[in-house]
Each structure stands twice: as structure tokens, then as C-alpha cells.
Amino acid sequence: MGVRIGVIGSANMDLVAQVPRVPAAGENIRGRDLREIPGGKGANQAVAAARLGAECLFVGKVGNDAFGAILRESLRREGVNTEYLGTEEGAASGTALILVAPGGQNSIVVCPGANGCLTPEDVEPLREELSLLDAVIMQLEIPIDTVARVIEIAREVEASVILDAGPPLEQAPDELFRVDILIPNEAEAAALAGRPLGDLREAERAAREFLARGAGAVVLKLGDKGALLVADGMVEHLPARPIRAVDTTGAGDAFTAALAVFRAEGLPLREAAALANCAGALAATRPGAQPAMPTRAEVLNFSRAQGGGCQSHGVYFL
Ligand code: RIB
Fold first, then answer.
1. What pLDDT was estimated at residue 279?
2. Ligand 1 site: residues with CB under 6 angstroms?
3. In this predicted structure, what is the pLDDT of residue 269?
4. CATH superfamily of 6-24+31-316
């Protein structure tokens, strides 16, 4: 039996088109291979956690429509418990319009739909479930009040909370920082800090501010620059894994889920982050979000093939 992970977050149907480049404002360009692929940061992380061997529970909302049925079934097929996935009458399921350019870079527009209907009242009955989990993962694609309320309840029942700070949120309330591990990417960290982060030093300074606001540890996802861990007077930069990116959609979700699962299994933060780096890299080598999430065996094999878990660009204690 794997560790018990609860994901409280969004489920979206991703409408994905391949484009020669991201169009400029007012430009009309030709795309190809339009596909409907299950996604949403929350659901992606739930699928990733399940593929990594966790027993996973998903809490969220879909609409009473065709996309909602597909999103529910996609989670169920992966072995994710959907008992707390509600259906919001009169709301459309969350949808994301995604353009993928050569090299895997993407641009995304999210229409939250039913995801925006998950209220703090909806999570009130989850107190006991949360107390039984090894970790709770959240993101910022559901109402912020709901995220804040889950953090509060989780603290009361002493559940460990991992917050993926995506999509970018400016002027985040203090409650969002009171988590065990905060995981922003570069743009999200810049939004939280209220300024652009030019280099690793600036990223580290922002992470320290997040620690001062209550985060137990900060793990910055820096894409092709790897990951930066800042915790307990320790700073460490893990280099990116060399890959040929096909589609980076969901790579950050694979990273967050892997970090949560391996940390909940008892690995030190550094080793869990190194494996998360591998999970993110693997996801970027495949198209789509949920279908791209790697299995546990794939992550462990990739890590071994890369020469083990914890290659580092330097660790120093301050
Ligand atoms: O993190 C990737 C996800 O962001 C996509 O699946 C899309 O649904 C958006 O929520």
C-alpha cells in the first residue's frame, strides 16, 4: 500500500493545438492536430501521484457535461478515488486552450468553469479525511479562499501541506505561505515576490522571503535551469536533467506530485526533489498533460540512468 495523498484542485479538459509559433496579438495562424486531453493542475497531480504508487484521493468539481464525464473517468481509470469529485449543475467543466510550439513551449488560457465553484464550505466535511493523509497537495486553480481554508484545517489536524503556486498569483494572502513545502516556478515566484527574479541569487532571496512568511521549505521549479531548494538554512541547486522536450504541459505537475509522494515516503527533501526533477523531465518528453505523467518505475530507471538521484550544483549552509 502506497502513501495516502489528497489532491484538492482543478480538473480541466485541455484543448491542445500544435502551432509553428505562439501567435502575436491580432495574428491569425494555422494550427494542427487539435486534441482533447484530460488536464488541470489538480487532476494532473492526482494522476501523477497515482502512477508513482500513491493511494490518491481527488477533491474538486466538474460540470454536468461531456467533458466532466471524461475528466471523472480519466481519474477513475488511473485508480484515483473520485468520491469527493462533485458535479456543479449549471457550470461548464474547466477548460484550457493550449498552444504547443516546436521545442515544447506552450501558452495556456484557462476558463475555470466548475473549478471556480469549489467553496470553503465544500471542504469543511473533509477534516477527518485530511487527518488520515500523509500529504495534501493543492494549487491555485480553485478559489483562493478554499485553498486558504484547507491549509487552516490541515494545520489543525496536523496534515502536511504542499502548495504548488500555479498559476501565478500576485498579492497572495499570508495564509498561503503557511505550508510545509511551497513549490512555485519562476513566474509564480516572481508574482508572489512582486518583482521579476533575474538570477539564482534573486530567486534565493525571494524564497527566503517566503520562508519568513511561514513556508517550511521552498522548492523553485526553474525549468531548464533545474530546481532550487531553500530550507532550514540550506540552499541547493539541482541541475535540470538533459532531455528533448516535446511538450512541457504538465511537467511542473509531475514534479510537484513526485516531490509530495517521495517526501511522504520519508525521503529527505533533497532526494525527493532530485526524483521530482526526473519526473518533470520525463513528462516534458511526451505530449499532453495526464497521458505524459511517468510511472514510478520510469522515474527510478531514469534517475539511475542519469547516474543516481542527487547530482548537485553545490550545497551550502548559511
Ligand atoms: O499545469 C498544466 C495544466 O495547466 C494544464 O493541464 C491546463 O489544464 C492548466 O490547468
1. 97
2. 10, 12, 14, 39-41, 44, 96, 108, 110, 141, 249-250, 252-253, 289
3. 95
4. Ribokinase (3.40.1190.20)
